[in-house]
What we know:
Elements: H1 6-17, E1 21-24, E2 28-32, E3 44-47, H2 56-66, E4 75-77, H3 82-97
Parallel strand pairs: 3-4
Antiparallel strand pairs: 1-2, 2-3
Amino acid sequence: MDVTSLAYRTDLTVLRLSGSEIADLGDHLVVRTPADPSYWWGNFVLLAEPVGREAVPGLLERYDVEVAVAEHVAWASTRWTARLARTTNWWSRRASRSSGTRC
């Protein structure tokens, strides 16, 4: 995945230098920090494109497989849109009401 954001490129470089594993899976990157599973932004999925609310269940399944070391869920997109912001807000509200949901 081609990361054009200078902010994400910097973050990924620092993460790699500090021991995180970064896997390029084409349409997304998987960042894992096995030495610190609680490191929120050291264990996340970076998406190339924004997704809608309907994609959340699939993202959660993918996250459980690809970032198995973390007990939280964190994903980001290299491109944000109003639609993604609404999806993120919807998910945050839903997760905060659900007991046992990792967020």
